[in-house]
Amino acid sequence: MNTGGGSVASDPGGYFPHQPVLYQEILNVIAPESGGVYLDGTLGAGGHAEGILKASAPRGRLLGLDLDPEALAIARQRLFDFQERATLIKASYLSATDVLAEIGWGKVDGIILDLGVSSMQIDRPGRGFSFQENGFLDMRFNQDRGQTAADLVNTLSEEDLANLIYQYGEERFSRRIARAIVAARPVDTTQELAALIEKAVPGYESHIHPATRTFQALRIATNKELETLSAALPRLIDCLAPGGRIAIISFHSLEDRIVKQFFRRESQDCICPPEQPICTCGHTAILKVVTKKPVRASAQEINQNPRSRSAKLRVAEKLSLT
After folding, report:
1. If both were cysteines, with which of 46, 186, 225, 254 could 78 make a disulfide (CB 3.0 to 4.6 Å apart)?
2. Is it true that domain 23-120+225-318 has CATH number 3.40.50.150?
């Protein structure tokens, strides 16, 4: 197995094995075959990748990408038995085209993205994604580079911080929260931030902690998640062979909207304004939308894994243009 780094002897954290969200649904829509080539752009603990490698035996190949070294370490161990057919590399799915060229692979027959933060990352206090336990406000998927959530919290102006929380967290109390944060700075830990927000927000629904949306907003901004997704989608379609499918799992409306609008746009021949009588755009459809409505987790899966409740799976197939 090409791992893009060293191998590990054991799972660093007890997340092996791990049943990913919408596991069977992904296998159903990707329909792996022996001899097929597949890309998992958000490898994580390797659960979806393992399913694809099993289903595409004996000759199917998979490229797995992830920015998180801890996730890669777990996936390397999990996929050890598939080392002749799996290539795992520390990289963003935004770089998939370059990585495929570097390893000498051509087009792929299926692509999957499982967006957002994983349960593994949430449950590690040192990563700073959750306020359930105290930890430094890091929130970076790739801890080797880039600004942390603490950097944003402690350096942005009150107005910019409020706009960030509103835009990426869809938080109606964003200005009140930003005001409380700025007044208390420096703020460096998860529970310190959560406590500030709890005091700033006047009452809240018992099943949603008032800090939840702010933490989402900071994570999205720290990792430039929406910008990455928007920039990556056309590149990923370029990587896809005709007849190949791209399956994307999102967990909040901001991601889902980007995927939905991209699939819709690229499945239409004309994207001129409706009031324009003659087409001048020259746009040609390159996709067929497979899921008219997003696929949701079953009641059984939600019961076993509450995180799957908010998951939405959208799938598109690349057209054969002749």
Report:
1. 46
2. yes
